[in-house]
Design the sequence.
């Protein structure tokens, strides 16, 4: 429990997130719970405000927390640009300790990232403590079988293809400040058969300023 | 589900990702909705 969860949402990667990860069906889905008497709410792992900013813009009472100070700084910057002043807290979810209690706590795309099962259970217990009686926790989860291609790495012959080479550069996206960003992903693995298999996904992000 | 129960949650529902439908084997995402008893 002592080790901090390892996540990648810092620096240039956080900037990439703020620029290009700003939509998705989750925004409307989670919003309806808040609108149906679910305020005040807490956006756990709010990141750069993909959900939080539209909710604040709509007048909903939502606080945010995140493990990454870089993501929070960008969230604050985006909020401020719209004249919004959210309560943002730099806290990992397994150390959540806030002064307020909530009708709704939601976690979108983040539960279980970078930590271990002890972190996850501690986070759930802290969510429970931060909810008002009768309050609701909503969290999504990508099911393990959704990345079917990864299962092949359990086979010895497939593991010989790892670590995967970084893809060649070429898919740059232009950000609002004129800089070009590129985000790449590669896979490696360390498998200690049969129970300690670990496939590792690495991401790196680069920027070219003008 | 078990971890949510262990944390104290009740009335735990599981839904297909970002809809109110029941989850199926074709869903890549699921959503847990759990209540703190009132």
Sequence:
């Amino acid at each position: 429990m002592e080790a901090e969860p390892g996540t990648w949402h810092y620096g240039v990667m956080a900037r990439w997130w703020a620029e290009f990860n700003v939509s998705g069906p989750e925004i409307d889905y989670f919003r309806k719970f808040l609108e149906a008497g679910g305020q005040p709410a807490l956006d756990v792992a709010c990141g750069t405000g993909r959900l939080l900013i539209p909710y604040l813009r709509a007048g909903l009472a939502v606080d945010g927390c995140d493990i990454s100070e870089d993501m929070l700084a960008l969230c604050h910057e985006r909020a401020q640009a719209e004249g919004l002043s959210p309560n943002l807290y730099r806290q990992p979810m397994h150390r959540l300790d806030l002064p307020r209690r909530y009708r709704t706590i939601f976690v979108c795309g983040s539960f279980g990232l970078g930590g271990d099962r002890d972190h996850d259970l501690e986070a759930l217990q802290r969510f429970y403590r931060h909810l008002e009686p009768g309050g609701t926790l909503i969290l999504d989860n990508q099911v393990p079988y959704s990345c079917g291609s990864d299962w092949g790495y359990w086979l010895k012959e497939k593991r010989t293809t790892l670590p995967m080479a970084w893809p060649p550069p070429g898919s740059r996206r232009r950000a609002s400040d004129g800089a070009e960003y590129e985000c790449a992903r590669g896979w490696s693995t360390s498998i200690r058969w049969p129970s300690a298999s670990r496939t590792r996904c690495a991401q790196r992000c680069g920027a070219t300023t003008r | 589900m078990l971890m949510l129960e262990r944390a104290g949650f009740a009335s735990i529902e599981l839904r297909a990702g970002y809809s109110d439908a029941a989850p199926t084997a074709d869903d890549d995402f699921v959503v847990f909705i759990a209540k703190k008893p009132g």
